[in-house]
From TrEMBL:
Cited InterPro entries: ArgoL1, Argonaute_N, PAZ_dom, PAZ_dom_sf, Piwi, RNaseH-like_sf, RNaseH_sf
Residue stretches making up the Piwi domain: 649-972
Protein name: Unnamed protein product
Taxonomic placement: Eukaryota, Fungi, Dikarya, Ascomycota, Saccharomycotina
Domain PAZ residues, every copy: 366-473
UniProt feature, compositional bias: Basic and acidic residues: 21-49
Length: 1005
């Protein structure tokens, strides 16, 4: 092991006795100390997790002991146990819409516009079985809504919470009060009533309603009331600012206007394909969802958190404590879903984290008690400075000033004061100076026990002691959930548990809360088909799954295999010089025993890669130390410059998860220097079990290295890939996605769009293009140019141009199909025209098939039997690990009314309930039959290049998602200068994009 004293390194000197252990692959070179900067951390996905799946948690004290959960600064979460048995409808929902679709009149579109594909057939291949769903029927017979639009003044219109509270007051006024049980509102600007509302004014379409001062004071904030108190420095002479003259004259009002009548008979005709009026179903679905949601929220103890999520928390003090200051509760998602000849309600269990509002004895919790719970310390052991360090947790929590009586309205905490406590904040009362503590004792008979705690700032000059503010119940926590293990422990349940919860408890609670007698009580059943898994080829082995009856083991192998004695299909060419970089903060480098562990682990990693066909030659193990996180990018770039052109691959060993360092490393190597690389965590990389390193993890790391270095890991057999490899010319398969900024300033952030594309007949390598665009824009603005780049990359590899293009678009919601078809599909077609023009190709008209995948949906499937008979009458497994079998296709019963869609569950569910992908064929010039496009999509799911499993999302879409995440790394830390937008700052930081030396590889994998 050599030291690097000449570079200002930490020069460990020789360690003796280890130098001769070098590998015959080219020698290790040992550690080389360095004081070069860089740290931060590693976080493969800085877009944030999607959260727990919404399994179902406990109901107060009912949960059983269960398994152990996570622990992260709060209480340990215990996994609840349930013993519900779901009831299913006896009739299978398998109605056929094809004949009615054929009779539909042609769609009337704008000139040159594209029409969305209609269903042309149903799939037929595979073993037929039936599966349960998390849907119940919903009758819309004899149901009609009158819709009204509510308009507020401009200064109020942007405040949804204010509008919601004012709408509640509006419903207490005439003529609404007499129809209160028939009216629902969306919390913003719409009323829906099952009876007409008699608006008296015959001369005006918009009828004005004013709110009294007692009604709106405390709801409309001072920042809106003209001349209201600013949220700035307090006036130190008063605890409660008096009302200004401007506030006293301010009038709050709204106008109500009738829009139209929504007769649900028209919706029933639409789903039955008997719609002669060609309605847009969206307003009807909105009306049903608003009505259902609003009626549920009126139930006692019901909490709604938006997006159709409902929690029924009768005793908050009995709910499980979660991370600091929170409890975790179970609830349900419920939403209307139209399908052919039926209207359904989709119901599934969800979980939510809430601010604690009650003490263990059931009494209301004040802010001081919440502080004690948050820190896990008695108040007399907490210093004011300690409270202030994490005051951001308490901002915007709504509190109630119960000492003011019933007229007091909830207020949000603006801040925790840095300057004032109940002893030092003084003001005059009746000509005498008093403190907050003295004032509350004299005025309200409230003795402040901890006057040293910082005051709660409600804005303006309103400062209150923590002990005088009680927490408003039912506030969902909107910050970062750090106790991921706890969430998984609480929410992860197998399908039979989810089905039982949904049907036995969810349906019952929603029906009871909404008093809705139109909802069915049993879960519907739909037909499913389980198609065969493809054969996967390695250089020296073929992975096959033989269909057979379930035995508890064999069915787990469908879509799951390992790399034991396997060599990648096309190994990396030649020998690759490897540099290992151990990252640490300055002065906190590896200790001698850690160096030993790293050296041994690296040797094992190199050897394991060699067993799969990657010949790595270890040149040296370096230590890189950074000074400060915000300097690590520049320091790491300087550190790595000397290795440019000398090594072929960099393995970065990170100290812990941290997206700042991860972004610095990836920006340096992918963008600035163009060196293939990957990252790992030191605790995982050097971990041993029973004296052995994790060779399986090293093999999976080797899969990443192989792909980045130009190898091909595994491919489909000839039969499985025949549809995309015709006449010796492979199809071009593309994937696209857009990632959006998150957090409080996301509206001003930057979205990252990507397109990836195949380059050969193996479909294992998908290099890609990245573009930055304005935050929250879902449509990909530069789609045409990125597709052009992917076609050019295909041509560089194949030396021909594709005749068939298959496109998988990720990140699309159900309401965005029209805009994708209108704006993105034409861009793809335009790119192909530009290819013909650029390369002077006559009559070049490749056929385009464009699909979207919806990942965030509420549909789940539950197996009803373990085995079923295949086409030959042989009994085979249709269930694996309590879930429906990988390869399950559902295209009836819960699919769209008339469009060309299907659900595919392609993955094994290692835990919990699997979530299927929902695929829509939006545009199809190739005219794929359902069996063909369904099997192709499933086969591709078995080709994810860095895994030995079939994945949930078709790989081109998955890769595009990963590339968007990597693009987010490249612009991490972009700070706009004065007069500069966030997009301009990010574009400047990104520079010219991925380095030319690696831009044709999968740098993001």
């Amino acid at each position: 092991m050599s030291s690097r004293g000449d570079r200002g390194g930490r020069g460990r000197g020789g360690r003796g006795g280890r130098g001769g252990r070098g590998s015959d692959r080219g020698g290790r070179g040992g550690f080389r100390g360095s004081d070069r900067g860089g740290r931060g951390g590693f976080r493969g996905n800085d877009r944030g997790g999607r959260g727990g799946r919404g399994g179902r948690g406990g109901r107060g004290g009912r949960g059983g002991r269960g398994g152990r959960g996570g622990f992260s600064g709060g209480a340990q979460v215990i996994k609840p146990e349930y013993n519900f048995q779901a009831d299913y409808e006896s009739k299978v929902s398998d109605e056929n819409s094809l004949e009615l679709i054929k009779k539909l009149p042609p769609l009337v579109s704008e000139k040159g516009a594209l029409d969305i594909e209609l269903r042309k057939a149903y799939g037929s291949q595979g073993t037929k079985t039936n599966v349960g769903t998390n849907h119940v029927s919903y009758s819309v017979a004899n149901l009609k809504f009158w819709q009204y639009h509510v308009t507020f003044p401009a200064e109020i219109d942007a405040k949804r919470k204010v509008k919601n509270d004012l709408l509640e007051i509006l419903l207490t006024k005439a003529p609404f009060s007499g129809l209160k049980n028939t009216i629902s509102h969306n919390g913003s600007d719409a009323l829906f009533s099952t009876e007409p509302i008699p608006l008296d004014d015959k001369t005006e379409k918009k009828v004005r309603f004013e709110f009294s001062r007692d009604e709106f004071l405390g709801i409309v904030p001072n920042s809106i009331l003209k001349g209201g108190a600013p949220r700035g420095k307090p006036s130190k002479d008063k605890a409660d600012a008096p009302e200004t003259a401007a506030q006293a004259q301010y009038v709050v009002y709204c106008t109500v206007e009738f829009i139209h009548t929504l007769d649900m008979k028209e919706l029933q005709n639409y789903v039955s394909l008997k719609d002669s009026n060609k309605i847009d179903p969206s307003p009807y679905i909105v009306a049903l969802n608003v009505s259902l949601s609003y009626q549920i929220t009126r139930a006692p103890n019901a909490i709604t958190t938006g997006k159709n999520r409902f929690f029924f928390v009768e005793h908050p003090e009995k709910c499980q404590s979660f991370q600091k200051g929170l409890f975790i509760a179970s609830g349900y998602f419920a939403s209307i879903l139209p399908t052919f000849n039926n209207v359904l309600v989709s119901i599934r269990p969800v979980a939510g984290a809430f601010i604690k509002s009650h003490n263990p004895d059931g009494t209301a919790m004040n802010v001081a008690q919440l502080v004690a719970d948050y820190y896990g310390e008695p108040l007399d052991r907490l210093s004011p400075d300690a409270v202030l360090r994490e005051k951001s947790f308490f901002k915007n929590i709504r509190i109630q000033r119960t000492y003011l009586g019933s007229k007091s309205k909830p207020k949000a905490i603006f801040d925790i004061s840095k300057e004032f406590d109940a002893n030092n904040y003084k003001f005059e009362v009746d000509g005498k100076v008093t403190t907050v503590a003295e004032y509350f004792n004299a005025r309200y008979n409230i003795k402040i026990k901890h006057p040293e705690l910082p005051l709660v700032h409600l804005g303006g000059s309103n400062y209150l002691p923590m002990e005088a503010c009680t927490i408003v119940p039912g506030q969902e926590f909107t910050g970062e959930v750090t106790d991921v293990r706890g969430v998984l422990a609480f929410t992860t349940h197998r399908p039979h548990v989810i089905a039982g919860l949904t049907q036995k408890e969810g349906v019952e609670k929603i029906v009871d809360a909404s008093h809705d007698k139109r909802m069915g009580k049993k879960l519907i059943v739909v037909p499913s088909r389980v198609i065969n898994a493809p054969n996967i080829l390695y250089k020296n082995r073929t992975i096959s799954y033989a269909e057979k009856p379930a035995d508890g083991k064999s069915e787990k192998k469908k879509g799951s295999w390992d790399l034991t004695n396997v060599e990648f299909y096309r190994p990396v060419k030649g020998k690759i010089d490897l540099l290992v970089v151990c990252v640490s903060p300055r002065g906190r480098g590896l200790r001698p025993h850690e160096q030993d562990a790293v050296e041994d682990a690296v040797n094992e990693y190199v050897a394991e890669c060699g067993r799969h066909g990657i010949t790595l030659v270890l040149k040296t193990i370096e230590e890189f130390e950074f000074t400060f996180p915000d300097r690590c990018a520049a320091e790491y770039t300087q550190f790595m410059k000397e290795f440019k052109g000398k090594i072929g691959y960099v393995l970065n060993i990170m100290p812990h998860l941290d997206k700042t360092l991860y972004a610095a490393v990836k920006k340096t190597l992918d963008v600035n220097l163009g060196i293939p690389n990957q990252c790992t965590l030191i605790n995982k990389f050097t971990k041993q079990r029973f004296g052995k390193f994790d060779l399986q993890m090293y093999a999976l790391m080797g899969m990443k290295a192989s792909i980045k270095l130009g190898g091909v890991n595994h491919i489909l057999d000839e039969k499985s890939s025949a549809v995309v490899n015709q006449k010796g010319l492979p199809a071009l398969i593309l994937g696209a996605d857009v990632s959006h900024p998150t957090g409080p300033n996301s509206a001003d952030g930057v979205s990252v769009a990507s397109v990836v594309g195949s380059i050969d007949e193996y479909y294992n390598t998908f290099p890609g293009s990245i573009r930055l665009q304005k935050g929250r824009e879902e449509v990909i603005g530069d789609m045409a140019q990125m597709v052009f780049e992917r076609v050019a990359a295909y041509h560089r590899s194949v030396s021909k141009f594709p005749q068939h293009v298959i496109f998988y678009r990720d990140g699309v919601s159900y309401g965005q199909f029209d805009i994708i078809l209108k704006e993105e599909v034409p861009q793809v077609k335009e790119a192909l025209k530009q290819v013909a023009k650029k390369y002077n190709i006559k009559n070049y008209k490749p056929k385009l098939t464009f699909l979207v995948i919806v990942k965030r949906h509420s549909t789940r499937f539950f197996p009803l039997e373990k085995n079923a008979k295949d086409a030959k009458g042989k009994l085979v497994a249709v269930q694996a690990q309590d879930n429906v079998m990988p390869g399950s296709i559902i295209d009836k019963g819960v699919t769209s009314v008339k469009f060309y869609d299907f659900y595919l569950q392609s993955q094994q569910a290692l835990q919990g309930t699997a979530i299927p992908g929902h695929y829509f064929v939006l545009y199809d010039e190739y005219k794929f039959q359902p069996d063909v496009i369904q099997s192709l999509t499933y086969n591709l799911c078995n080709l994810f290049s860095r895994a030995t499993k079939s994945v949930r999302v078709v790989p081109p879409a998955y890769y595009a998602d990963l590339l968007c995440e990597r693009g987010t790394c490249y612009i991490h830390g972009a700070q706009p200068k004065r007069g500069e937008t966030q997009l301009e700052a990010a574009t400047k930081l990104y520079g010219r994009g991925i380095h030319p030396d690696v831009q044709h590889t999968m740098v993001y994998i």
